């Protein structure tokens, strides 16, 4: 029994079922921005400002650097193995089947929990927008059971419906998906630009003093929560989760060897600049201590602070659009990971069946879309949100280590893009990820261990015996051949 049997690039490409190739660099960049810009600006900036003060912009920069190092490693793998599956496929290539399955299992957790969690935030902004027009839903249908203190709630109807609508868009074709995402991202960026242009006149440089009131890392008297630039970076790291989903679109991308690296790195760069500008403007308008008054909706709070109430409705729309694109990209990435695992035999064939008309993994998309909608509708999943972080960081570590390993074992393999500064860049990516993981609480580790235990039971109970490599008796070859993308 070879638990670490590998695939070559030729095998990965040969096993792929070409989906409809329509994605270009612009579409991939919009896909990445759609995944990144959303919750970070409209939710996490409040808690981040309380944790780091005006130095929150530095925290965003540190989180972006960590993701940038990982992004360079993703870009190299994407240019070498332009197939669906993202980190799952890259791990199959570098470390073998068992590691690949574990990473794929973690990515499913990452994408599902983030999409379900964002659906809860989306519902909150949707209810606020209805209120601004004098409308309302029955309070029992505004949130999952027990998520609103002092109020009896049973079901998150808005979140449930929006996830199903996004699933429908994903299921009917990549053309519809990319057009929907491109339009929403452009609307979101326009609203953010409008906010910056209107709000920058209210900035008072004195509010940036002291710029870093808590330093790099410190504990305040009477508090168990750390403060400073590093703890805030761990919080806002969530903001960048999702750019890795861009690499899941390899089989729907034109010239993936070139366009995938560009899309990954451009989306990270643009999003980082936006985050830094937004946080400087927001902390320049409102003293950082004041964010405690509107921690759940910091951008709306800044608007009310300036008195520009007319802008509130527009920003609420921007928040809804922003969170919608995040869910769209997460559900897209999830369906493509499951598609790749089903194609390899590690999941039932059901997940890899491609719709003859839409050329999408139709059944798998709906299966996980419905599960995610139910999770967001009924379950209070806020306590599980850190699992998104640990699942993503583990994938980043494997991909970064994979670049180091492949440079050693397959130095002559075809690479359309080479990460610069190897071995330093992958090593720094691993170090950053380990630092962020070390900051997670022990409950997260326990839940993560339980999830891994379930995954290993699935692998040894089903996946190992049904793997296509098992049927072929292939122990995996370490050599990597040059692959030509369609």
From TrEMBL:
Subcellular location: Membrane
TM regions (residue ranges): 28-50, 56-75, 87-108, 154-173, 185-204, 224-243, 264-288, 308-333, 365-384, 390-407, 419-439, 445-462
MF GO annotations: amino acid transmembrane transporter activity
GO CC, alphabetical: membrane
Signal peptide limits: none
Keyword Nucleus on entry: no
UniProt KW keywords: Membrane, Transmembrane, Transmembrane helix, Transport
Domain of life: Bacteria
Classification via InterPro entries: AA/rel_permease1 (IPR002293)
Membrane topology: Multi-pass membrane protein
Keyword check for Transmembrane: yes
Cited PANTHER family: CATIONIC AMINO ACID TRANSPORTER 4, INNER MEMBRANE TRANSPORTER YGJI-RELATED
Protein name stated in the entry: Amino acid permease
Biological classification of the source: Bacteria, Bacillati, Actinomycetota, Actinomycetes, Bifidobacteriales
